[in-house]
Predict the structure.
Amino acid sequence: MLKGKSALITGSTSGIGLGIARALAGQGCNIMLNGLGDQLRIECLRSDLEEEFGVNVRYHGADMTRPVEIENLVEVTSAAFGGVDILVNNAGIQHTAKVEDFPQERWAAIIAINLSASFYTIHHAVPHMRRASWGRIINIASVHGLVASANKAAYVAAKHGLVGLTKVVALETAGSGITSNAICPGWTRTELIEPQIAARARELGVDIEAGGRSMLAEKQPSQQFVSIEQLGQLALFLCSSGADQITGTAIPIDGGWTAQ
């Protein structure tokens, strides 16, 4: 039922965003990629997705700290595909430090990319969805949108804010054919957490894999990382007719982290 629909996915040139892009392309969605990276690598990625799944794949390099570029990203997507049916807000950055040591510029950047950018994409995409009487907004939050961890003031604040934004948009679009939900992953082996794994390994004097196991043992009862493929499957479900009445939720996929 997703064949021919359009999906805009921020932060989709690697990691979770790319995994969700692949899952949606596999169901026939046209894809607008966005994210950082070497331009040649991104072009290879774009063309490979297009060839593998037989869909239209475009790329827009909007800087997610710049509202004007975000507006252009949404409008270019609509012009390319005739609308914006699915919006996945995935772009995110991280920095860890105690609150008294937290650099103010890192706070501002994390709030801008992890929270404010999602407001701007939603602000510009919802009118397109209303005209189509159908839309799916999926915000990639985190378990840190539900619970806190030390040394992550900006990230936790942004992700809690994103969950709140998700709920407000769900209320404002209820009954319109648009749904708004947040996915809250636990530890997922992506580029975003590799520095944290490396730091844990250095702290313990162990190798990277042992550092990862230590992180899992502290927070995630399943003792397994969430996979990018699992997140893609959850996103697909939220886009399905089976999820028509699921809106305003923050869904943990965290190996039991938030059950504790």
Q: What stands out?
A: The first strand starts at residue 6 and ends at 9. Residues 179 and 245 are 8 Å apart (CA to CA).
